[in-house]
Design brief:
By secondary structure, the chain is of the alpha+beta class. It is built from four helices and five strands. The strands form two sheets. A three-stranded antiparallel sheet has the order 1-2-3.
Length: 139
């Protein structure tokens, strides 16, 4: 491939990555968590999220660790196979009816899980600081 063709391809990819309003599927199960409709004035870059990596690490705990719905009868969070929801489907830009805002849901679930895995020596674990998740350059 010529240098000119590579440059055009790279520019097209950059344009695609920066213009997409919601999570962007990058690879088989890699997405960028960005939600431009909620995080309009973000101070940090979007987070690259590898779904396959998380599925493998949390396999023994099941999908309900991340994918849950509120059971109206019991007010508990439950997992319903085949009805997996993304965080964005229930968590909005602001806390509402006791449901944490999307930002707090991500931070509360992700970093808390990573820290717990470190504390209980369930390694490997994921990042626990802002800059480890919110990296300036996309892969």
């Amino acid at each position: 491939m010529s240098i000119k063709n590579r440059a055009v391809t790279v520019m097209a990819i950059i344009l695609l990555l920066t213009a997409t309003p919601g999570p962007l599927t990058v690879g088989a199960e890699m997405t960028f968590i960005q939600h431009d409709d909620i995080f309009k004035e973000r101070k940090r870059p979007p987070v690259a999220f590898d779904h396959d990596l998380h599925m493998a690490a949390l396999e023994e705990n099941g999908c309900g660790v991340c994918h849950h719905s509120r059971d109206d009868a019991s007010s508990q969070l439950v997992y319903i196979e085949g009805e997996e929801l993304s965080c964005r489907e229930c968590h909005l830009g602001k806390k509402k009816d006791g449901i944490p805002a999307l930002r707090e849901a991500y931070h509360g679930s992700c970093t808390a899980c990573h820290r717990k895995r470190i504390k209980t020596k369930q390694l490997p674990s994921g990042p626990t600081t802002c800059g480890e998740c919110h990296k300036a350059a996309r892969p």
